[in-house]
Task: structure prediction
Amino acid sequence: MPEHLARIFWSDEQVRRGLPAFTRTTDPAWFESVTEGWSLVCRFHASPREQGSPSVAQVAFVETNAPHARLTAGARLNLFERSTRRWATVEIIE
Result:
């Protein structure tokens, strides 16, 4: 699957609790105008805890039938945050 550079803006609650220490995660994500979710892989060169918010990552959908063509510069998705049960905002850079 093609990867795209993205910025992840974590929720205020996640920032307050502490940003994740992982460098890779797969979580549900959905475009703001769509209720259908897709698994999104996020690969961080340095953990969000090290980077702060926003964090930079390479992102890609897992499923082959996901709308890969919609991951273009300026696209925004909601990413499920496991610890807060809220969402972060993913903005595709390129």
In short: The chain has two helices and six strands. The mean pLDDT is 95. Residues 12-17 form the longest helix (6 residues).
